[in-house]
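Objective 1b of the project was to move from sequence-level analysis to a structural picture of ligand recognition. The entry below was assembled by the postdoctoral researcher (A.K.) and checked by the PI before modelling. It contains the amino acid sequence of the target and the SMILES of the bound compound, zinc ion.
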Amino acid sequence: MRAGRHSSVSLSAGLALSLALSRAAAQTPYVTLMPSIVAAGSPELIRVAAPDATGVSGEWLGRKIQFFRSQNGRAWLALAGVDVEAPAGDSTLHLTIENQGGVSRDLTRMVVIHGARYRTEPLKVAPQFVQPPPEAMPQIEAEVALKEKVFAASAPEPLWSGDFRAPVRAAPTDSFGTRRTFNGKLASVHKGMDFRAASGTPVHAGNSGLVVLAAPLYYEGNCAVIDHGLGLFTISMHLSRIDVHEGQRVTTGQIIGLSGATGRVTGPHLHWAVRWQGAYLDPAKLLRLNLSDLR
Ligand SMILES: [Zn+2]
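Corresponding predicted holo structure:
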């Protein structure tokens, strides 16, 4: 009796295990994330191997993921990511593949977001001393609205191709994600990467795309924004000169201007930011992603 009960327990446990394993085996080949360790601030190349699908849709942490077909047509790809300020823990990556005849298959899964260890540094000046003067407020508010409008529209297909390249030949710093605190409270998070570039250093397009903003702004100084499609943008700030105009197509490596010290800066440098659907991603990780052989 005891032995029988014991074996029936292990049988049902074994059945549950084999069911779980077969479900995992059925799903595993379909979806891969690169990098496979997901952290706050990571760009992620999501690949869904579903050659027969007519479409793939996704949503992650409140952001819509737009997929495109790989060159050989065997997979659907999306360049997405996790915002630098996203909390560590489990997240739900919603994925649905559409097949012929309107049949859809749910591939939703849990993705663990690991905490990234970003530096914390105390602010050297009190916030009231870095507050803009009241007369600058109308300009700042107008620019907030302008940036919202610029980032709200993006090309419906990828405009980038191949690997992203560093915008300047200058030393990068590990400044992305640095938390600046004032009196122990979080005052700001640094959402880009600073390159130690002397004024006049040529700044290149990190990848091909469309210039959607090329203008002097209060905080950003001379600022150039490139739309790479499907919600992905790169932003270059504090330029001494802008050499492109809004509406201009650029190719990878094309000079878009010269670095400088315009806007709210303490010295010349290039601030380079990567934004996807409102999330700020680590430029260093984007530069390390292998995007040159997407099949
Ligand atoms: Zn910066």
